[in-house]
């Protein structure tokens, strides 16, 4: 197997490899271009993101600046938004569902290094995939660690360090991140009422 094949299969691999270096340089080139374009260049930025990511839906936006190791190992669904300063270390695949929002400085780390110092110093490393479901909101300054799966309809509080899987339909937060409570019908009722108030207030501004 090649080093890239080993890496994407979640085996130990060595990153000092020509194929991986080419992929990494391409990601650096694309993110440099994205991060130096102005706010008038949104269309061009979107086109560059499409070149960078393995897949991204029709409707998305990632606020620059943005950093990633490869980009091509990241797969994103529809209606994705990421705020400023996000970092995706995608030595293993990152899968993000539909209707997902990231606050500023959300970091996804798939990379890991051996605990044993002798093996670690030999340059062997590994990656573990990260999966994020649909309808997820992740607060700013959250770190998502290798191998984590976050379920559907989840809210992660800001400043969290997610080290273990998070189930569907919960609010979770903390370092390490843990489930705080379930998301219930009472939450939906409350926010439906708040949305109705919004629409009523907007009507008052209309002639």
TrEMBL record:
This is Acetyltransferase. CDD domains: LbH_MAT_GAT. InterPro entries: Hexapep (IPR001451), Hexapep_transf_CS (IPR018357), LacA-like (IPR039369), Mac_dom (IPR024688), Trimer_LpxA-like_sf (IPR011004). The keyword Transcription regulation does not apply. Residues 4-58 form the Maltose/galactoside acetyltransferase domain. Pfam families: Hexapep (PF00132), Mac (PF12464). It comes from the Bacteria. It comes from Sellimonas intestinalis. The lineage of its organism: Bacteria, Bacillati, Bacillota, Clostridia, Lachnospirales. Its EC number is 2.3.1.-. GO terms for molecular function: galactoside O-acetyltransferase activity. Belongs to the transferase hexapeptide repeat family. Keywords: Acyltransferase, Repeat, Transferase.
